[in-house]
Amino acid sequence: MLPASIRPDGRLRLIIFDCDGVLIDSEGPSCRMLARELRKVGLEISDEDAVKRFAGKALTALKEEMEDQAGLQLGRDWPVRMQHALVELMRSEAETIEGSAAMLREIRELGIPFRIGSNSSKLEMDAKFGRTGLDALIAPECIHSARDMGKPKPDPAVYLSAAQSEGVLPEDCIVLEDTETGAAAARAAGMACVLLRPLDLPAVSWPGLLRVGHLTEFTALVKRILRSQGRAA
Fold first, then answer.
1. N or C end: fewer C-beta atoms under 10 angstroms in the chain?
2. Chain centre distance of CA 205
3. In the 8-state DSSP scheme, what is residue 43?
4. Percent of all residues in the chain with a pLDDT value above 90, rounded to a whole number
């Protein structure tokens, strides 16, 4: 059965946004920085391949992958060192995804609560939102970090925490994601998911997964769901 949040007989009560690739355009700068650091220790990888391989992955998972598959020895403190470097990078290079600020304002005007659930740390998200001005639209208590919880996606913990904090059931939530890792976390949480990705690109498919090709299409999708539930939109 489809999650209640997108069924005509259900009710959408909460939207949870991923951060990177949905609200903030940070995947490129972040992955390129990680590629530079990994090339220093012997990994042969281009910036382009790094974006394809690293996007959406938690630093701890990436460390394990690089050590297991590439035979690198990065050291126990590598995720912490990279996290500090990413925070400094985002203070100077973070930019919004086109249309993200307008979309957040539109969702707020619809009266649907929203929260953020990301693999980024709270410090990193504070840097991103502060630089881009999205901190004016996102309450600090509505930001949830899978990294700080020690349970990165695809573990559903960060999404379940967001729903619990809002006082709603997981099935009454929609998650907006841009990666398979994040979509898997939403599915494991029992939530509907909207995958943000150009429609000519391949994507996973399962009941409860919807797609939009551009961020500007998301509000219209939410309005259609609300109207199907007999709610003004």
1. N
2. 18
3. -
4. 69
Which of helix, strand or coil describes residue 122?
Answer: helix
The β-bridge partners of 158 are none
Return all residues near 136 (Cβ < 8 A) that are at least 6 apart.
Answer: none
Per-residue tokens: 153: 């996606």
> Cα(72)–Cα(135) distance, rounded to whole angstroms?
38
Cis before 202? omega within 30: no
CA-closest candidate to residue 114, choices 122, 104, 124, 123: 104
Q: Check: CB of residue 225 under 8 Å from CB of residue 6.
A: yes
How many Å from the N-terminal Cα to the C-terminal Cα in the chain? Answer: 25
3-state secondary structure (DSSP) of residue 14: strand
Q: Which residues in the chain belong to E strands, given as ranges?
A: 14-17, 114-118, 143-145, 173-177, 192-196, 209-212
How are strands ordered across the β-sheet holding 14-17? 143-145, 114-118, 14-17, 173-177, 192-196, 209-212
- Asked whether the predicted pLDDT for residue 26 surpasses 90, the reply is no
Dihedral sign from CA coordinates of 67, 71, 77, 78: negative
Predicted TM-score (pTM) of the model is 0.85
